[in-house]
């Protein structure tokens, strides 16, 4: 067994085809340490909190659960594993599939035509807080969340509700930073960060950090 790279990130692969999971594991770069696999919604929900991966490579269409597939995994784990990032990896390039899983909280979406090197690079970027999409899929997200001048004006109006500090906190939380990381970066206490986040969610009429990420992405703020 080779020595783990210092830059390695911990990943769980969720896909109902064992051959695909095995092939993907073999193709991922040395930066990736696969710490678990799951084949169904329920298996994923049971596994992920225990191993606390940095990134989950998540298929969109999964058996089990209430039939919600990858989006259901995201919804059921939203409040349980807030530090884990999710990257959708699916054979589907349908607009509905892309938009639904992003709305549920995924940080990106690649089709299974991506190479192992491309998936590795995308996982690293998602772990770092970026949003990553296969080129033709990004348009679906921008179309779904609105990119016109009216949306830009609305974003400006909504941002005006936030103080400068709240905007700083909002962008970091939307990028996936943990409260402790935000506190360290901005020289604040964790309690102060929590207060700012509560204020941001209230002012923007959002319910949680996943909705905040989707909102910030739709306004081109990330």
From TrEMBL:
Question: Where does the signal sequence lie?
Answer: none
Keywords noted in UniProt: DNA-binding, Phosphoprotein
The record places domain HTH luxR-type at: 155-220
Which positions bear 4-aspartylphosphate? 59
- What Gene Ontology biological process does one annotation of this record name? regulation of DNA-templated transcription
- Gene3D superfamilies in the record, alphabetically? 3.40.50.2300
Q: Which residues form a coiled coil?
A: none
Transmembrane segments annotated in the record for this chain: none
A GO term for molecular function: DNA binding
Limits of the Response regulatory domain: 10-127
| Keyword hit for DNA-binding | yes
Top-rank taxon: Bacteria
The record's Pfam families line, in alphabetical order, gives:
GerE (PF00196), Response_reg (PF00072)
Q: What is this protein called?
A: LuxR family transcriptional regulator
Stored SUPFAM superfamilies: C-terminal effector domain of the bipartite response regulators, CheY-like
